[in-house]
Amino acid sequence: MSDHVYKHLELTGSSTTSIEDAISRAIAKAAESVRNMRWFQVTETRGHIENGKVSHWQVTLKIGFTLEDR
Asked: What CA–CA distance (Å, rounded) separates 44 from 61?
């Protein structure tokens, strides 16, 4: 494996279904415009409560990607 330099960006995904779905949505959206994604790290999880139940999840994550060689 060669040496890599990574850059990261921070995103917040949301879902009414689950934490995992919020993460997947954020990664899928980033994949539309970011190449070479390699890792993610969840940095914050929060949600919205309605009538005593979780109604919406928000997950903030860092996504790391490799910079391309020129």
From this structure: 7
| pLDDT tens per residue across span 54-69 | 999 999 999 999 987 7
> What's the pTM?
0.86
Tokens of 69: 């060689």
Helix ranges (DSSP H) in the chain: 19-31
State the sign of the Cα–Cα–Cα–Cα dihedral 39, 8, 29, 44. Answer: positive
pLDDT of residue 37 exceeding 80, the answer is: yes
Contact between 42 and 26 (Cβ < 8 Å): no
